[in-house]
Fold:
Amino acid sequence: MKKTLLSAAAFATVAVSAVAIAPTTSEAIPAFARQTGAACLSCHFQSFPTLNAFGRAFKKGSFTDMGDQALIEDDELGIPAQLNITAMIRPQFVKTSVAGVTTNAINATADQVLMIAGRVGEHTGAFAEVSFGGGAGTAAAPGGAGGFGNVQLMNSWDMGDLKVGANFYNTGFGEDAGLQLMSVWGQHAGLMGGGALSINGSMAMAQGTAGVSAWVANDTVAVTLGLVDPSAGVGASWKLAPMVRVQSFFDVGDMEIGAGAIVVSGQNQIAAIGTKQDAKRYGVDFQIQGEAADMQYGVYADYASASAGTLATANVYNASTVSSRTGYSLRATIKPTHNMVFLAGMGQDKTGAAKTDKILVGAEYEMYQNGVIALTYGADKAGAVTTKTTKLDFEFLM
Structure:
């Protein structure tokens, strides 16, 4: 009975998304809605891609929960009767100003992807984006030549009150992409680009990450152990860096509080050079999601530190060989009406005396649960140079 209720309420939108150009905010994908028969906001808080408790449960279940959609079943077979696919349409208008020089750009198709997602079997689910090239490409889709990007293969099993799982991933969302449940960085932090403020996101998502992980979770705590390649995510060798990620959730009155920590401490091999590099950093994150006076609000914060590398062994998270790299971020969202969300945030990325201070403000209008218009303004101040970016973003998923 419990599983039936979860299937009915667990949604169409959990997050796992990286694109040929950059990771997108498109976590609330209709592919999951078709499979579960549930509305997008069943799994999301305020708007996609932030997760609520149902969304986390759906993800811990490896995207396997079904609604009314028919299953084809036989011995060791249990797949949806149709392949669930989502197409993204995302025109974007961007104005960038650096040192008084302004550039205007129209990206008719900022992202060109099909997203294939959902149940593979009783205990297994998958998510993959098929890109159509364009641009210089990223680690998740090298060379911009098209093909699969942001691949996740997830497995989970029930053990009493616990879920245990084993996942593979090659994404642009960081070392913990095997089971990201928090909404501070990674695939669930993209609301109006808010995740770009995160220092953990800046350190982890500059390059793609390939990895394998094993995890155990219940309703309040998830612990993940992984082995990751954080240098372009192409799986250059079997020399992988150990990663530990802890995420916890608990209720206080009308608030849901989340807290987490991540530690990566080891080495991996650089494909182009054939030498080893350090992959050493730690971070903490914190979030509050709640409702007051009929308005939903969210607060998201994090801190991270990566030690300096050496001339002999670089640290993938810190280009300096002298000073540690540290930073923080804080952002808040409020949803005063059923289809409007506002965001304001700030952050800092500092290495020695060099630092970049960031601010971001934005507003999002939700035409549909699977279609939004967002206007954002961000300013990154590095020394005497400030980069200002104004973006009008349309994102619709079919």
About this structure: Helices lie at 2-9, 30-36, 53-60, 199-204. The radius of gyration is 20 Å. The chain has one domain: 2-397.
